[in-house]
Amino acid sequence: MRIYTELFYLPNLEYFTAILDKDELFLDGTEYYQKQTFRNRSKILLANKVETLSVPVAGGNKKRKYRDIQIDYNQKWKNVHLRGIQSAYGKAPFFEYFYPYIENVYLKNHKFLFDMNMDLLTVCLKLLQLNVKVSVWEEEGQIPDSMDIRGLLHVKSGPGMYSFYQEKEYLQLFGVDFAPNLSIIDLLFCEGSSAESILRASQKK
Domain of life of the organism in this record (predicted)? Predict the structure, then answer.
């Protein structure tokens, strides 16, 4: 089955529960960039709070195609994100195994946000061992025989508002209360090879 969606930055668990059983994932290559969305932000769990990692972009206030949005390296965001990930997950069981794959993407210094996000998504799918073909759809309109979920995954969605995800607890490093629907790297670093089965248990029935 095909699914049609947006490309996000280190997507959350709901994103992956939506695409989990799909054969083909089509990413919207025609859309205009939208601020304050998952296109440039992701959530991780630190010792005392859930932290939002946000990638600064140049020209995000103007009406521009997502694929033309450049990352703003004048701001020292990259080191902040890498240090944040290391601080959050450095003691996680699978950190040493998976982190180099993630770090390598940042070290490429991608010019465009879309390209970096595509690289990160590809790495995460590989680490999850999900066999889904990823393509960028360059035409306007609906893809034939596909499930279109564009616009359904929102930054402000919370418990009871998720379209594809239901909370399934797993071992996290910090906090008494489980923090649901974080970036996929939270699940990967904490659970490793069990990540796929936890995603399946997290699919909203």
Answer: Bacteria
Question: Helix-strand-coil percent breakdown of the chain, rounded to 5?
Answer: 35, 20, 45
Question: How many other C-beta atoms are found inside a 10 Å radius of the C-beta of residue 133?
Answer: 11
Per DSSP, the three-state class of 26 is strand
Residue 21 has a CB neighbour count (10 Å cut-off) of 12
Residue with tokens 């600064």: 56
pTM given for the model: 0.94
Using CA atoms, how far apart are residues 20 and 10, in angstroms rounded to an integer?
15
- Return d(Cα 157, Cα 163) in angstroms, integer: 9
SS3 168: coil
β-bridge mates for residue 147, sequence order:
3
Dist CA 162 CA 155 (whole Å): 11
Distances in Å between the Cα of 120 and the Cα atoms of 7, 117, 185 are 10, 5, 10
pLDDT tens readout for residues 115-159: 999 999 999 999 999 999 999 998 877 787 889 999 999 888 777
Q: What phi and psi values does residue 102 have, to the nearest 5 degrees? A: -70, -45
DSSP three-state, residue 101: helix
Q: Look at the chain and report how many structural domains it folds into.
A: 1
Chain center to CA of 147: 19
Q: Closest by alpha carbon to 42, among 94, 97, 105?
A: 105
